[in-house]
Design a protein that fits this description.
It comes from Flavobacterium cheonhonense. By secondary structure, the chain is an alpha+beta fold. The protein has helices at 34-47, 80-89, 109-127, 148-157, 179-190, and strands at 4-8, 15-19, 22-30, 53-60, 66-70, 95-102, 130-134, 136-144, 161-167, 170-178, 195-199. The chain folds into 2 domains: 4-133, 2-Layer Sandwich (Ribosomal Protein S5, domain 2), CATH 3.30.230; 135-199, Alpha-Beta Plaits (2-Layer Sandwich). The protein has 5 helices and 11 strands. The strands form 3 sheets. A 5-stranded antiparallel β-sheet has the order 2-3-6-4-5, sandwiched between helices. A 4-stranded antiparallel β-sheet has the order 9-10-8-11. The protein is elongated and about 75 Å long.
Amino acid sequence: MKDTYQTLAEPAPEILYKEKNSKFYGYAFPVTSEEEIKIHLEQLRKQHHGAVHFCYAFQLGTDTIYYRANDDGEPSNSAGMPIYGQIQSFGLTNVVVVVVRFFGGVKLGVGGLISAYRTAAQMVLQEAEIVEKTIDIYYKVSFDYKNMNKVMRIIKENNLEIVAQKMNESCEIDLATRKKNAEKIFDIFNHLFEIEIEKI
């Protein structure tokens, strides 16, 4: 079972690609939602007054993949899809790549546009730091304080990550574990007396 994915460690440095007086600025950001993508696009629009096209593609998700490619006024499939093709060829998800174009007065034609947007997307992803992350499953474990040692021992033995915890008479710990270990972890806690586990 594959339980890792590749994404960006941080936003990539800006790149500039020139073709027949047109300037193509490339950007790549790690994202987890469309809200974040909107924020990045708004910031780039403020940053680049006078740019004609803000073309982009994104891919979100690990189990269920969701993507979109946007030509932003360029001829159909001449910008967004070439950008998306680069996201795929680098094997990335939870990422958005934006290419901002300043028109230089010379038309590039559809073939020229495809090549320019693809090259800009490729250049910015080559500059990016790509990291592998695990696909994690989250559980909430509920128990009485007296069972604390038992729970903590399992967390330690299995290298589980504690995401959040509430420690009172009755305790709750939110845990993260790699997808491939998730069933095993669920079973361990599920078989323990006086300890509840649920997926969150």
